[in-house]
Automatic annotation (TrEMBL):
Upper lineage: Bacteria, Pseudomonadati, Pseudomonadota, Alphaproteobacteria, Rhodobacterales
Descriptive protein name: DyP dimeric alpha+beta barrel domain-containing protein
DyP dimeric alpha+beta barrel domain location: 10-151
One Pfam family per UniProt: DyP_N
Organism name: Ruegeria spongiae
Needed co-factor(s): heme b
Keyword Iron: yes
């Protein structure tokens, strides 16, 4: 462990999640540099009742009622007075910002930045994204009112946890997160995945690659112990997804190899109250994701959503004989120790994921098309080697495995019905190809932000014109 590591110097929600029920993201513009700096100084100090305090490491004995953190865009650093010399030390991806990286991220057509609603339609004005976590809404309102005294509020996005830790597609979410050496998280006591080095997410610490550190922006006090975040507003077409499952299951009912996909005796192991059509819907959903919708890995239980014996949710890997499709979402974004092109990349592109849902409830039995989705944060130490590599190389091009190269992730990929393809695996090693599904997740906004340490926030507050 690096001697420079002190968890109390980190913003919270990086190494451990808060697990509150509500979140509000407040998109801010620095319109008065002096007021903004004064706010940052007081927020880092944490002693003012009029300014929300930056929440540090989540190693608390008593959880605070409000958790407050900030992410600063490249233009935000400029607006606070960071010199051009220091700005030049930050990576290109961050300097360009999410909107200019759209093609690489698959943000095209309806997901293109030109289609993003305010305030994301003016990325140059987005300087800071503040996040406020709480269990009661009045705390979010109070923090927003306090922030508005020092910044121009361009817009807000509200999120909430859905029951049973699910997302609108019906899957249990946030099962597999990186866990870090030297960091105790009681929520991950029973997790049995390999531990990740701190340099996976924090600048200035060892990475998976021996002798290699990601470069630290300068001055050192500004860059060290910071992290980079991709904040994404992701619209989830829950109706379109459920409609497609209906279509796929109907086609599979009469498929000559249908019994190799789901044996008649296994239907009740998929769902006690499901007929064959309903069970086939769940098999398609499970193979597309790599997990059954209750969270059980398809790799460990390919014939049953409800296995007779409990299985680990995290301790498994993939082989060439895996029943979990190579193109499944979970296998694309986290190939674990499985066989992929450039094996050195195994476990090296891990991202911390923090997210909550937005929009109205969804009833699969009475489907509507209201906008709903996920407010997601994807945190790491290097955009190019982690977030963009996962989204571009693995999720949207399938470059990690020749069997799926040229296809997109079935759930998050930039699909169109004319070219979409996904192969279901069968018990005998054969495949059934599905086609004709649309893009289920569309980007509705976002920004690349830097999550500075507490010393870095104090440094920014002390900049002079």
């Amino acid at each position: 462990m690096s001697a420079a590591f002190d968890p109390e110097e980190l913003q919270g929600n990086i190494l451990r999640g808060y697990r509150n029920n509500l979140v509000r993201y407040i998109v801010l513009e620095v319109s008065d540099r002096a007021k903004a700096r004064q706010f940052l100084a007081a927020s880092a100090d944490g002693t003012s009742s009029e300014i929300p305090a930056i929440t540090r490491s989540a190693n608390w004995k008593e959880k605070p009622k409000v958790c407050f953190n900030i992410g600063v865009t490249f233009e935000g650093l400029r607006a606070l007075g960071t010199t051009n010399r220091d700005l030049d030390s930050f990576p290109l991806e961050y300097a360009e910002g999410m909107a200019k990286r759209a093609i690489k991220l698959g943000d095209v057509d309806e997901s293109a930045p030109g289609q993003w609603p305010a305030p994301f339609d003016e990325p140059g004005r987005i300087h800071i994204i503040a996040s406020v976590y709480a269990d009661e809404e009045h705390y979010l309102d109070q923090a927003e009112a306090q922030v508005a005294k020092a910044f121009t509020v361009l817009g807000v996005r509200n999120g909430r946890n859905l029951p049973d830790s699910k997302v609108f597609f019906g899957y249990v979410d946030s099962i597999s997160q990186p866990r870090f050496r030297h960091v105790f998280d009681p929520a991950q006591v029973k997790v049995d995945e390999p531990k990740d080095p701190l340099g996976t997410v924090l600048l200035g610490h060892p990475t998976h690659f021996e002798g290699m550190l990601f470069s630290i922006p300068q001055p050192d006090v500004l860059g060290r112990n910071g992290a980079f975040n991709a904040f994404r507003v992701l619209q989830q077409d829950a109706k379109g997804f459920e409609d497609y499952l209906d279509k796929a299951a109907t086609e599979l009912l009469d498929h000559p190899k249908g019994d190799l996909l789901l044996a008649p005796e296994d239907e009740k192991r998929v769902g006690e109250d499901l007929d064959r059509h309903g069970a086939l819907r769940e098999v398609v959903a499970a193979q597309m994701c790599g997990r059954w919708r209750n969270g059980v890995p398809y790799e460990l239980s390919p014939d049953a959503q409800w296995p007779a014996d409990a299985v680990s949710l995290t301790n498994y890997s993939y082989t060439r004989a895996s029943r979990c499709p190579a193109g499944a979402h979970m296998r694309r974004v986290n190939p674990r120790g499985g066989p992929i092109v450039q094996r050195v990349a195994n476990y090296s592109r891990r991202l911390v994921r923090r997210g909550m849902s937005y929009g109205p409830d969804f009833d699969p039995a009475n489907r509507d098309s209201a906008e709903r989705g996920l407010l997601g944060n994807f945190i790491g130490a290097n955009y190019g080697a982690q977030f963009e590599a996962v989204v571009c190389d693995w999720l949207n091009f399938g470059l990690q495995d020749p069997e799926i190269t040229g296809t997109n992730d079935p759930l998050l990929g930039a699909n169109v019905p004319e070219t979409s393809a996904f192969e279901l695996t069968l018990k005998d090693g054969g495949r059934i190809r599905l086609n004709g599904f649309p893009r289920f997740v569309k980007t509705r906004g976002g920004a690349y932000t830097f999550l500075p340490s507490l010393p870095a926030i104090r440094y920014l507050s002390q900049l002079s014109d």
